[in-house]
Task: structure prediction
Amino acid sequence: MDMDIERTLYLLVFTTYVTFFCLFLRFYFWKKYSEKKYWGKRPSLSVAGIKDLASEMGRELPFISILVPAKNESDVIENTVRHLSKLKYPEDRYEIIVITDEKEKIAAKASRKKILSVALSLLSGRKSRSKQPFSTEEAHQLESLLLFVLASFAQEDDAEGLYELCETLKDKKPSWRERRKGEDGTSPNASVSSWGSNIALARNVLKVFYGLDWSTVAGAGDIGHSPLASPASGEGSLLARVRSLPRKELARFLDESLVRLFPTTQEVVEKVAVSLGGMPTPRIKHVSVPYDFDGSLHGRLTGRVVKSTKGRALNWGLRFVDPRCEICGFYDAESRPHTDVLMFVAYRYLLDPQECRIFQGPVFQVRNFYKMSPFCRIASLYQAVAHDWYLPWLFKTLPFVGGTNLFVERRLLEEVGGWDHNILTEDLEFGTRAYLLKGAWPQYLPYHSSEQTPPNFRAFFRQRLRWATGHLQVVSKVADLRFVSEKEQRELTFRLIVKGQFEWIVYQAATFVPPIALFLQFRHLLDETVVPPVVRLILAGFSVVYLSFTFYAFLRYRQYFDSTLKPDGVMRNLFVVLGLFALPLAAFLFPIPYTWALVLKSFGKEPKVWVKTPRTRERPA
Result:
């Protein structure tokens, strides 16, 4: 019997839903595979044990150099260096090399000069001579500097606490009740109510702050426009105390305060290195990439500014590894690897150095979970699941290298010419080149590293767009690579396309099925009677399975969340959990950056510049 159009359309929709549910069920297969082959076979290791193993083999423990590229990473780098210095491995057999960028220091010097000049003029009551407009970040730093200095003069014994209270009150937006009553929106909320009498002191500091003559500052806009600008008791005495300080001393205090509030990555690294100097820790090296370094391994200084990329920084850092180094480890500036990771890498390398030339471990990018948007929270959970269970299976078809929680034999790095500093995904490109040139295939490292996910969709989109564009660059480069096996070249190109362009298009197309089905249902163009009622009930249950799995992932990876970022109050925590119900919308948005990369590539408009991923600020441990 011929089916009518309504039944045919419903069968197409039904088949699509079932197909993708079956694809989703692969997670459980991958889980079993990864646990049986890797996670369930982790050996029981100790420093004494691997020392004995090396002794039995008549050699020393492998010396490991950990490289951490860090440009504009002052918000996170301190905790990372401290964590890396506590890994379970003999302190004399590994080192930490933090690679900063000279351009950050140069930019900070120019910016600070402008900020200090304006701040000194505002506090001393003189007209600012600076005519240069302020960027958004410079305006923020100027505001924070002035608040901190005023708080220091208002309350010397706890200047930082008063400053934080001022920042909280300044940034607090009035509620609808306060707007109705015409209040200024600075009434204390639950997070600051414990300050008691300091609320009044903070308000007085804010009155002085807003009462400064902001009209003399180029690009300041409406910073000084606030209902708090009305005079108050104590205002004159506070400003008088500030202006009573000799100008040179005030300038020095401003300079010290600005460095304290907004240090460069270089300053933070140097401070941490000094603080760890008297402790039994590995050697910490700090190197800075010259502004004119061309980016190639063993490259030269050009005398002109060269754009910054991660590959460029890593190639510079490789110049400074210890001569004894056999293995190079790579971590991002906010990484927190498992403390046993070096012991495992050394253990496997001792047993099979020819096979274990590259180790790639999973990355759980969930640490700033409480500071993400609902979409990014869901994305971070599924990315963690993929690295936890799917990555071991992916290694059966692709030489995937992720760039962090990565260990590479130093000799291999030299043999293949280091990192490609011109490509947007230098990590994936390195993995493919190492395989085609030297036959090196990555091994799965069953030790995680916790990291961050971009906190909002815009940052997430830019990061994934860079990844997708870099993937397309790698496909083109692999196809054009010379002096390699043509068979392996064709096979790898095909696998990259399947795992890249093909899957992106398929998943993006699948996201349009639910809205199309809703539209067809609304127009009465679907006849669901073509399948039995019990089957339709099972189909409706798919959504419950997806949502339940999301909550399972939330509970599984919650131990890696930064608890210091957890919001106050039951309701705010409830909203975090309720955000997981945005899964259907998130699933629609996941493939968009990858699809957009294909569109841009087809028009020759794809991104050409490497863009750093923004971080969530972390409190020093």
In short: The radius of gyration is 28 Å. Residues 133-244 form one domain. The longest helix spans residues 486-511.
